[in-house]
Amino acid sequence: MFNNLVAVFTGKHKARLLKAAGVASVELVCAGDTWRAIHAECAHRFDTVPLPGRDAGGEGMDLQPLVLTGPQLALVLTRLFRGARAYSVAHPHERAVYQRVYDAAAAVLDQVDLNDAEGKPIPPIVIDARLGSGSA
């Protein structure tokens, strides 16, 4: 939640939405269960931007890439930004998923430089936390 408040007060969320809207496409790599949670939060009948289907993310914990367009990514960011807030009606475990995905997407979008005409390709947004190999 703290990251969301910082994003609001610093204008980072709006800047991320503008960057997302300009992306041709980006891969979101996540487990099927994660995509279904995102899809449930984002897919409302009045949205004009269709998302890949709930089954597009594979089964259970299998990591599968989904290709999102810029408008789809902006929709996902907007819905997850709202859903991750403490006053959201979402359950705490849902808010944790929303925050994790938002933060991962934000980390990628924060690297985008809108003024660089020769920019680098956008890396995939990967939702797969792993333990470091150097733990004692």
Structure explained in plain terms:
There is one protein chain. The protein is mainly α and 136 residues long. Helix content is 46%, strand content 10%. It has a three-stranded mixed beta sheet.
Question: Helices, strands, pairings?
Answer:
Blueprint: H1 2-10, H2 12-21, E1 26-31, H3 32-42, E2 63-68, H4 70-83, H5 92-109, E3 125-126
Parallel strand pairs: 1-3
Antiparallel strand pairs: 1-2
Helix pairs in contact: 2-4, 3-4, 4-5
Average of per-residue pLDDT values: 80
Output the radius of gyration: 15 Å
- Spatial shape: globular
Kindly report the spatial arrangement of strands forming the biggest sheet.
2-1-3
Which labels suit this protein?
136 residues, mainly alpha, three-stranded mixed β-sheet, 5 helices, 46% helix, 10% strand, globular
A few lines on this structure:
With 136 residues, this protein is mostly helical. The chain is built from five helices and three strands.
